[in-house]
Amino acid sequence: MSGRAFRKAINKEYDLLAERINVEDSNDSEDIDQTPPNSNLFDLLNEADDVENHNSDENVDELEINKQNLEPSLKIASSRKKKKKKNKKNTPVEKPTLELERKTRTGKKVEEMSDVELETLIREINDKFGNLSTAQQGDDNLNEESQSPSSISSNSFLIVDTRLLDADGEMRRMFSSGVVDREIRSRNYARTIKRTLLAKPRQSWPPILKFGLRMELLKENDGIYHFKFIHSQQYQTVQLDFLQRIATHDPNAIISLLHENPYHIDSLLQMSDVYKMSGDHTMASELIERALYAFEKSFHIKFNITKGTSRMDYRHFENRAFFLGLLRHIQSLSRRGCWQTSFEFSKLLLSLDPSNDPLSVLSFIDYLGLKAHQYSYVLSLTNEWTLHKLQDWPNFAYSAAIAQFQLESREENNSQTHKISTAMLEKAILYFPSVILLLSEKCDIQLESHVTESSFIQEVPSSNYLNLLIDHYVDQISPLWTQPELINWLQTVLLNVVVKLQIPDYKASLSNEDFTKALLYGKNLRENSFNEQIPLNLSRYIVVSENSKFLAYLPEVTSRDINLHDPLPPPDGVSPYDAYSESSSTDWENILAVDLRRFLGGVPVGVINANVQMIAERIHQIADTANLQAAAERLIEVLRGAGAYDNDEMQQLPNENQELPMPGGFPQDNSSQAQDRFDTDNDDEHDTQE
């Protein structure tokens, strides 16, 4: 039973139980002293609501309304029960309630129970009162029947278990809870009224107010909802400022922008890349989490990440940062070894646009599924996905065989050991034989000489696209193939394939007919299915993954400038910032004025005259990208002239005793520290960690 169906069952049982209590009490007329129960079973069950992690506010309101409607009925029923006889003191409603409360006190807490244990608790109630949720289950079945089969089969692979989006929970399962708890306490998570799913806010983060980002529903079609993020006029002004600052290639300019706009998404992601390149992965991860937290606070009420029915179009510029933030978070989680969490986030990222897959999630979700031990998912996705024919992809052909091998290894009866998986691996080798030599070299697998000398195994695809797919797959999957049982299995299967190619009567797992069909199909697949140019979504993923090894496959991409905040935008993309080109001098002059006002506003009065040259260099640096050298020269002349600031301007500047805030929501320092900071900026070497 899913979490949503479970909550619906609870709501239905609330209504039916209240109705039953009222009917029973209307038939009682005798007086008796009785103490009303202190708590109700369903109040106890309702505590599991936090664990269910539902994303829709409507579900929360619905559950609370049912609870509020039931409580008065229970109170009235308790007062009426005083008229009952003493031999009816323990009513059918109260007795199981008290028994299950004692069981809960002596056993697990409800919030610690799994879905199986919670369903067991529901069945105990149904045994006492009958199946109270039959009507609700009938409604659920009716709703499922109304959906098209293709919609169900496609969306079933996109459903996200929000309980598994918590990386801290996975760390607790992997390591000692004491060690993990100390690490979690060091992060100083903030207490929030409503639990967030994508990221947990920290006490050091600035309060999130209205910062100009919201989401709107574009359309709804057959249960699929299409959304788009919207930038307000305020946010667009900050975004234009960001585009101006990013052109300076100065991290301090982005830090300054983050100080005044701590939840500007592109600035957070850009600084995350800066910290990652400098080796500070902790800070890089925190900035990504802050960006996801800002996104979640902007979600539409109908945007549900659990069902796999929410879509976003990557062509809209405002949506792209959400895609990139999720991908970078997946990379950060994988670096920490949180494979289950990164796997759930990859399903979420794929669900946003499964048809186009703008960040090529399908090139790595099979690997994450194997690392997270989701073998059934990988196998089902390969064979049943309706949007793409994944059996014809090199990564899924081999990963599905591994998944089947692992599932067979779990079976208690291994009388026919790995028969199906061996046939799948034979077919994968016949489809993509060039994987073998790369894999053996990467994993140091010893192969027979007549195997390595086989012309079939030595075949090199002529397609640059196919070579990239194979090289990328071998690079990421190689740690799994180092397991001894997989190495022995691969050596045996490979030997069977090579021998059968030389001796057609040799018996392999595939029948003679299936072997011949697979051989011909694989040849046609390699020659005709990958002749196109490397798709833009795969190129975009390679650029974001920052693996220089694979950039060699993209000479036409690496020869041009790439913005990491928007890598390889789609040619048919739509952006509200397209009109703000560098040729639009009026707009850039406003941005230049804003940047200088903020910069000079942070300089104490006593420091201005001593650092005129530094400020002049800053003006030139900003003006270079906007082709506004003439305006810059005029500003510098005013700055160097007598009485650079009039009285009104002087009043707007901070005095020497005024504290200057540091960027990014960090603790503030005093003016003497600000003086040292500006003196340091005057040196040849700049502190990139400031």
UniProtKB/TrEMBL annotation:
Residues 23-107, 132-153, 651-690 are annotated as: Disordered. It comes from the Eukaryota. InterPro entries: TCF25/Rqc1. Residues 78-89 have a biased composition (Basic residues). Residues 681-690 have a biased composition (Acidic residues). Pfam families: Tcf25 (PF04910). Residues 96-107 have a biased composition (Basic and acidic residues). GO terms for cellular component: RQC complex. Coiled coil: none annotated. This is Transcriptional repressor TCF25-domain-containing protein.
